[in-house]
Amino acid sequence: xxxxxxxxxxxxxxxxxxxxxxxxxxxxxxxxxxxxxxxxxxxxxxxxxxxxxxxxxxxxxxxxxxxxxxxxxxxxxxxxxxxxxxxxxxxxxxxxxxxxxxxxxxxxxxxxxxxxxxxxxxxxxxxxxxxxxxxxxxxxxxxxxxxxxxxxxxxxxxxxxxxxxxxxxxxxxxxxxxxxxxxxxxxxxxxxxxxxxxxxxxxxxxxxxxxxxxxxxxxxxxxxxxxxxxxxxxxxxxxxxxxxxxxxxxxxxxxxxx
Length: 258
Description:
By secondary structure, the protein is α+β, with helices and mostly antiparallel strands. The protein has helices at residues 60-80, 105-116, 204-212, and strands at 10-14, 27-39, 47-57, 97-98, 122-132, 143-155, 180-187, 192-199, 219-223, 235-240, 247-257. The chain has two domains: 3-155, no CATH class; 180-257, 3-Layer(bba) Sandwich (Hepatocyte Growth Factor), CATH 3.50.4. The protein contains three helices and eleven strands; from the N terminus they run βββαβαββββαβββ. Strands 1, 2, 3, 4, 5 and 6 form a six-stranded mixed sheet that branches. A five-stranded antiparallel sheet has the order 7-11-9-10-8, with helices on one face. The longest helix is centred in the N-terminal third of the chain and has 21 residues, at 60-80. The chain starts with 9 loop residues before the first strand and ends with a strand.
Protein backbone atom coordinates (compact mmCIF):
# COMPACT_ATOMS: atom_id res chain seq x y z
CA UNK A 1 0.00 0.00 0.00
CA UNK A 2 1.31 3.46 -0.83
CA UNK A 3 2.46 5.70 2.00
CA UNK A 4 -0.50 8.02 1.49
CA UNK A 5 -2.76 5.08 2.23
CA UNK A 6 -1.03 3.90 5.35
CA UNK A 7 -3.12 2.10 7.90
CA UNK A 8 -2.88 0.99 11.45
CA UNK A 9 -2.84 -2.26 13.12
CA UNK A 10 -2.32 -3.43 16.63
CA UNK A 11 -0.58 -6.74 17.09
CA UNK A 12 -1.00 -8.04 20.60
CA UNK A 13 1.13 -11.08 21.23
CA UNK A 14 -0.19 -13.48 23.81
CA UNK A 15 1.45 -16.54 25.26
CA UNK A 16 0.70 -19.66 23.29
CA UNK A 17 3.36 -22.25 23.82
CA UNK A 18 3.23 -25.94 23.49
CA UNK A 19 5.67 -28.81 23.18
CA UNK A 20 5.40 -31.30 20.34
CA UNK A 21 7.37 -34.24 19.14
CA UNK A 22 9.87 -33.38 16.44
CA UNK A 23 13.38 -34.31 15.35
CA UNK A 24 15.40 -36.26 17.88
CA UNK A 25 16.62 -34.00 20.68
CA UNK A 26 14.51 -31.01 19.58
CA UNK A 27 11.50 -29.29 21.12
CA UNK A 28 8.99 -27.08 19.32
CA UNK A 29 7.52 -23.82 20.53
CA UNK A 30 5.06 -21.30 19.05
CA UNK A 31 4.25 -17.68 19.85
CA UNK A 32 0.76 -16.56 18.80
CA UNK A 33 0.42 -13.04 17.39
CA UNK A 34 -2.85 -11.13 17.11
CA UNK A 35 -3.47 -8.45 14.49
CA UNK A 36 -6.06 -5.81 15.32
CA UNK A 37 -6.99 -3.21 12.70
CA UNK A 38 -8.73 -0.51 14.74
CA UNK A 39 -10.55 2.58 13.40
CA UNK A 40 -9.66 5.73 15.36
CA UNK A 41 -11.78 8.50 13.80
CA UNK A 42 -15.14 6.96 14.77
CA UNK A 43 -16.60 4.14 16.85
CA UNK A 44 -16.04 1.50 14.20
CA UNK A 45 -15.56 -2.25 14.08
CA UNK A 46 -12.06 -3.66 14.51
CA UNK A 47 -10.70 -6.52 12.41
CA UNK A 48 -8.67 -9.27 14.10
CA UNK A 49 -6.36 -12.03 12.86
CA UNK A 50 -4.04 -14.51 14.53
CA UNK A 51 -0.83 -16.13 13.32
CA UNK A 52 2.05 -17.98 14.95
CA UNK A 53 5.81 -17.85 14.92
CA UNK A 54 7.12 -21.41 15.14
CA UNK A 55 10.55 -22.91 15.81
CA UNK A 56 12.32 -26.05 16.99
CA UNK A 57 15.55 -26.19 18.95
CA UNK A 58 17.42 -28.36 21.40
CA UNK A 59 16.08 -26.42 24.40
CA UNK A 60 12.78 -24.62 25.11
CA UNK A 61 14.30 -21.17 25.68
CA UNK A 62 16.04 -21.16 22.29
CA UNK A 63 12.90 -22.42 20.55
CA UNK A 64 10.85 -19.63 22.17
CA UNK A 65 13.37 -17.00 21.14
CA UNK A 66 13.52 -18.25 17.55
CA UNK A 67 9.71 -18.38 17.32
CA UNK A 68 9.50 -14.74 18.40
CA UNK A 69 12.29 -13.81 15.98
CA UNK A 70 10.22 -15.32 13.15
CA UNK A 71 7.32 -13.00 14.04
CA UNK A 72 9.64 -9.98 13.96
CA UNK A 73 11.13 -11.01 10.60
CA UNK A 74 7.68 -11.43 9.04
CA UNK A 75 6.45 -8.06 10.37
CA UNK A 76 9.62 -6.31 9.18
CA UNK A 77 9.58 -7.80 5.68
CA UNK A 78 5.86 -7.42 5.00
CA UNK A 79 5.35 -3.97 6.53
CA UNK A 80 8.59 -2.30 5.54
CA UNK A 81 9.96 -4.42 2.69
CA UNK A 82 9.20 -4.60 -1.02
CA UNK A 83 6.50 -7.24 -0.43
CA UNK A 84 4.17 -4.71 1.19
CA UNK A 85 2.50 -3.84 -2.08
CA UNK A 86 3.22 -7.08 -3.90
CA UNK A 87 2.84 -10.40 -2.12
CA UNK A 88 3.56 -12.33 1.04
CA UNK A 89 7.32 -12.53 1.78
CA UNK A 90 8.95 -15.90 2.33
CA UNK A 91 9.58 -14.98 5.98
CA UNK A 92 5.80 -14.99 6.61
CA UNK A 93 5.27 -18.53 5.34
CA UNK A 94 5.55 -21.99 6.85
CA UNK A 95 7.29 -23.63 8.57
CA UNK A 96 8.56 -20.54 10.42
CA UNK A 97 5.21 -18.71 10.45
CA UNK A 98 1.89 -20.57 10.52
CA UNK A 99 -1.61 -19.30 9.67
CA UNK A 100 -0.34 -15.90 8.52
CA UNK A 101 -3.52 -14.18 7.26
CA UNK A 102 -2.33 -11.77 4.57
CA UNK A 103 -1.26 -12.38 0.97
CA UNK A 104 -1.08 -8.74 -0.18
CA UNK A 105 -1.18 -6.94 3.15
CA UNK A 106 -2.34 -3.53 1.90
CA UNK A 107 -5.15 -4.92 -0.25
CA UNK A 108 -6.28 -7.50 2.30
CA UNK A 109 -6.46 -5.15 5.28
CA UNK A 110 -8.11 -2.37 3.25
CA UNK A 111 -10.75 -4.78 1.96
CA UNK A 112 -11.52 -6.18 5.39
CA UNK A 113 -11.63 -2.93 7.38
CA UNK A 114 -13.80 -1.27 4.72
CA UNK A 115 -16.14 -4.28 4.65
CA UNK A 116 -16.35 -4.23 8.46
CA UNK A 117 -17.24 -0.51 8.45
CA UNK A 118 -19.66 0.01 5.55
CA UNK A 119 -20.52 3.54 4.50
CA UNK A 120 -17.13 4.98 5.48
CA UNK A 121 -15.06 6.58 2.72
CA UNK A 122 -11.98 7.38 4.82
CA UNK A 123 -10.93 5.40 7.88
CA UNK A 124 -8.12 6.51 10.19
CA UNK A 125 -6.43 3.67 12.04
CA UNK A 126 -3.71 3.13 14.62
CA UNK A 127 -0.78 0.81 13.89
CA UNK A 128 0.87 -0.57 17.00
CA UNK A 129 2.82 -3.76 17.63
CA UNK A 130 2.28 -4.90 21.22
CA UNK A 131 4.14 -7.60 23.12
CA UNK A 132 2.43 -7.87 26.48
CA UNK A 133 3.84 -10.29 29.06
CA UNK A 134 6.01 -12.12 26.55
CA UNK A 135 7.73 -14.22 29.20
CA UNK A 136 6.01 -17.17 27.61
CA UNK A 137 7.56 -16.30 24.24
CA UNK A 138 10.99 -15.17 25.37
CA UNK A 139 11.84 -15.34 29.10
CA UNK A 140 12.73 -12.04 30.74
CA UNK A 141 10.58 -9.70 28.65
CA UNK A 142 7.40 -8.21 30.07
CA UNK A 143 6.31 -5.27 27.91
CA UNK A 144 7.27 -4.14 24.42
CA UNK A 145 5.54 -1.70 22.09
CA UNK A 146 6.44 -0.41 18.64
CA UNK A 147 4.44 2.05 16.55
CA UNK A 148 4.38 0.79 12.98
CA UNK A 149 2.50 3.60 11.23
CA UNK A 150 1.02 6.53 13.17
CA UNK A 151 -2.12 8.22 11.85
CA UNK A 152 -2.74 5.64 9.16
CA UNK A 153 -5.38 6.40 6.55
CA UNK A 154 -7.45 3.99 4.46
CA UNK A 155 -9.52 5.17 1.50
CA UNK A 156 -12.38 2.80 0.82
CA UNK A 157 -13.66 2.19 -2.72
CA UNK A 158 -16.93 3.86 -3.63
CA UNK A 159 -19.72 1.34 -3.01
CA UNK A 160 -21.82 0.26 -5.94
CA UNK A 161 -25.30 1.76 -5.85
CA UNK A 162 -26.79 -1.08 -7.85
CA UNK A 163 -26.02 -4.76 -8.10
CA UNK A 164 -26.49 -6.68 -11.30
CA UNK A 165 -29.37 -9.04 -10.55
CA UNK A 166 -29.09 -12.81 -10.72
CA UNK A 167 -31.96 -15.30 -10.86
CA UNK A 168 -33.09 -16.28 -7.38
CA UNK A 169 -32.13 -19.89 -6.71
CA UNK A 170 -34.00 -22.43 -4.65
CA UNK A 171 -32.83 -22.72 -1.03
CA UNK A 172 -30.11 -25.28 -0.37
CA UNK A 173 -31.50 -28.55 0.92
CA UNK A 174 -29.45 -29.38 4.07
CA UNK A 175 -29.82 -33.09 3.29
CA UNK A 176 -28.13 -32.83 -0.09
CA UNK A 177 -24.76 -31.46 -1.22
CA UNK A 178 -24.83 -27.68 -1.52
CA UNK A 179 -24.67 -26.26 -5.08
CA UNK A 180 -21.37 -24.46 -4.49
CA UNK A 181 -17.69 -24.83 -5.28
CA UNK A 182 -16.53 -25.43 -1.73
CA UNK A 183 -13.18 -24.01 -0.48
CA UNK A 184 -12.39 -25.11 3.10
CA UNK A 185 -9.74 -23.05 4.89
CA UNK A 186 -10.22 -20.09 2.52
CA UNK A 187 -11.60 -16.57 2.94
CA UNK A 188 -12.56 -14.16 0.17
CA UNK A 189 -11.60 -10.62 1.28
CA UNK A 190 -13.63 -7.64 0.16
CA UNK A 191 -16.57 -7.09 -2.21
CA UNK A 192 -19.13 -7.58 0.57
CA UNK A 193 -22.79 -6.93 -0.19
CA UNK A 194 -24.16 -8.24 3.09
CA UNK A 195 -23.27 -9.90 6.39
CA UNK A 196 -25.29 -12.08 8.75
CA UNK A 197 -24.67 -13.36 12.27
CA UNK A 198 -25.57 -17.06 12.42
CA UNK A 199 -25.44 -17.80 16.14
CA UNK A 200 -23.44 -20.60 17.70
CA UNK A 201 -24.73 -23.36 15.45
CA UNK A 202 -24.77 -21.64 12.06
CA UNK A 203 -22.97 -23.71 9.41
CA UNK A 204 -21.39 -22.98 6.04
CA UNK A 205 -24.45 -24.66 4.52
CA UNK A 206 -26.57 -21.92 6.10
CA UNK A 207 -24.29 -19.31 4.56
CA UNK A 208 -24.51 -20.98 1.13
CA UNK A 209 -28.30 -20.99 1.39
CA UNK A 210 -28.42 -17.27 2.27
CA UNK A 211 -26.23 -16.49 -0.75
CA UNK A 212 -28.48 -18.60 -2.98
CA UNK A 213 -31.47 -16.58 -1.77
CA UNK A 214 -29.82 -13.16 -2.25
CA UNK A 215 -29.88 -11.29 -5.56
CA UNK A 216 -26.37 -10.32 -6.66
CA UNK A 217 -24.58 -12.81 -4.41
CA UNK A 218 -21.94 -14.72 -6.35
CA UNK A 219 -19.76 -16.03 -3.50
CA UNK A 220 -19.69 -16.26 0.29
CA UNK A 221 -17.34 -16.68 3.26
CA UNK A 222 -18.41 -18.40 6.47
CA UNK A 223 -16.37 -17.52 9.59
CA UNK A 224 -16.57 -20.17 12.29
CA UNK A 225 -17.43 -19.27 15.92
CA UNK A 226 -14.40 -18.08 17.86
CA UNK A 227 -12.97 -16.01 14.98
CA UNK A 228 -15.21 -12.95 15.37
CA UNK A 229 -14.08 -10.76 18.32
CA UNK A 230 -17.25 -8.65 18.18
CA UNK A 231 -19.35 -11.76 18.93
CA UNK A 232 -16.86 -14.55 19.73
CA UNK A 233 -19.51 -17.26 20.20
CA UNK A 234 -21.21 -16.74 16.83
CA UNK A 235 -20.56 -17.73 13.24
CA UNK A 236 -20.60 -15.03 10.55
CA UNK A 237 -21.72 -15.18 6.91
CA UNK A 238 -20.29 -12.64 4.45
CA UNK A 239 -21.93 -12.33 1.02
CA UNK A 240 -19.77 -11.31 -1.97
CA UNK A 241 -20.58 -9.68 -5.30
CA UNK A 242 -17.38 -11.04 -6.86
CA UNK A 243 -14.03 -12.65 -6.01
CA UNK A 244 -10.75 -10.80 -6.55
CA UNK A 245 -8.51 -12.34 -3.86
CA UNK A 246 -8.48 -15.87 -2.45
CA UNK A 247 -6.65 -16.08 0.88
CA UNK A 248 -5.81 -19.19 2.88
CA UNK A 249 -7.18 -18.80 6.41
CA UNK A 250 -8.26 -21.55 8.86
CA UNK A 251 -10.95 -19.17 10.18
CA UNK A 252 -13.18 -19.75 7.24
CA UNK A 253 -14.88 -21.82 4.59
CA UNK A 254 -15.87 -20.15 1.33
CA UNK A 255 -17.83 -21.06 -1.75
CA UNK A 256 -18.87 -19.87 -5.21
CA UNK A 257 -22.53 -19.70 -6.12
CA UNK A 258 -23.24 -21.79 -9.20
